[in-house]
Amino acid sequence: MTTVRASSHRSPASMVAVALGVACSLACSLVGARSVEAQTLSNAQLRATFDARGLRSLTDRSDARVFALRTDDFAITIGAQRIEGRALAAPTVRTRADLIAYHYRADAFDIDVTYELRADWHFISKQLRVTPRTAQAMHIGEITVFRTTLDETPTDVFMPSSPRPRLGTAEYGGAMRFRDQHSLLMIAQNPFLHMTVDGSVATLRYTADMSWEPAYGPFVSDRGLIAPVALSGRRLPAHERPEWRSSGDSTPGLDEREIETFTAMVRAFLLYEPKDPLNVFVGWCVNDYQIDVGTPAGRAEYRRIFDQASASGAQYVLYAPSNSALSRREESVDDWSWEHVLWLGLGQQIRRNEWNPRTSPIPPSISEMVDYARGKQVKLLAYVYPVLPFSQSDRWIVPARSDTKRKMASLGNRALQDWLIEELVAFHDRTGIAGYSFDHTFLTFESSSRYAQWYGWRRVMETLRLRIPDIVIDGRQAYH
Length: 480
Fold this sequence. Notes:
The protein is built from eight helices and 26 strands. It has 480 residues and is of the alpha+beta class. Strands 6, 7, 8, 9, 11, 12, 13, 16 and 17 form a nine-stranded antiparallel β-sheet that branches. Strands 1, 2, 3, 4, 5, 10, 14 and 15 form an eight-stranded antiparallel β-sheet that branches. Strands 20-21-22-25-26 form a five-stranded parallel β-sheet. A hairpin with a 7-residue loop joins strand 8 (109-116) and strand 9.
């Protein structure tokens, strides 16, 4: 997420992206129900045992340290109904070589709780899947991924916390330490977590506060992850030293091995990781927004930028000049009055539904610059703000943060997500760009929960990556 080396999914929010294959293939890929006695999952690094309702122990094969659990429960609130796993009838259990799934029936819902251990993991994944047995929409409230009772009480607990809680973010999980220089690291794949440790009982939960329609398929929770760690005894400070200060908070935070384990958990779910750095020439670093490529002189000037970008070894250019043939700065509706440089200069027309990437002609002032860049072996990234008040539908329009008389679009709205995905794919395919630089991605509108908006934006990015595997996704100032 930097200016020069822009990697498609390097931001925390992007790295937290989840593969959804288990949710789609669970029913057809599991073998028949087996005995619930002494079920195990194991690989070269970890061994996990299970009883009739869930995880019972984790053994780190590197040093044979066993972490015993008395119980591991779950809970979820759907509408006004809170469903507690321990209150449900005994589940049926199905297994596969790398996972164990517990199937519960809860009134109008089927709930599957799946534990997974892949060959290269040093952690166990736990995930809830809710399938309604009626055609009615659900409202998903609080989700307790882990309610774990340990056999021993931690001597110390550290929970990394959000530096900006006003955004609705909270903890990032927690590390439970024990006397013998070991810990259990418990996290889930979103930044809205709340963790509590009361004696030997650890609870990890988050609140979705989002609607879910039957047409979306089963609701699948974010993965919870739990990993054993052999501590190094070297802890980093809980907070980074403030810029331009010689000293900072010396409160100890995560152990170096806990950081390594947390990092490995994140990397295990990356949808994309380039083998080499992606070198992006950022046009506004040469004030390209002051260049008017709607004129011959402006296009000549920008061709010199392409020349220099190519000469410096850049593969991509974040292309955001002014274009008086297509847009006007004074007609911009974003907070920074930069809408006129978006979507290669077509941003205002796209917002007003005056230009369609599938059918409308590409303006000569754009095709000329795309062709010239291609001749220099440079591809363009279009600059895009996802929450502008696109006029294609009023379903996603909400009051803006700074001025309620102004309007924006909320990423908590599924229709906006769907429209953005299709529009971004079509624009990419039609214009020949390499991808997008995203900014102005505000997730704090009052129309829906912070989590619902964050979830929606993650869904857009994940789907773009799956639809266009080699797309370049670059993040600017307010990407998340």
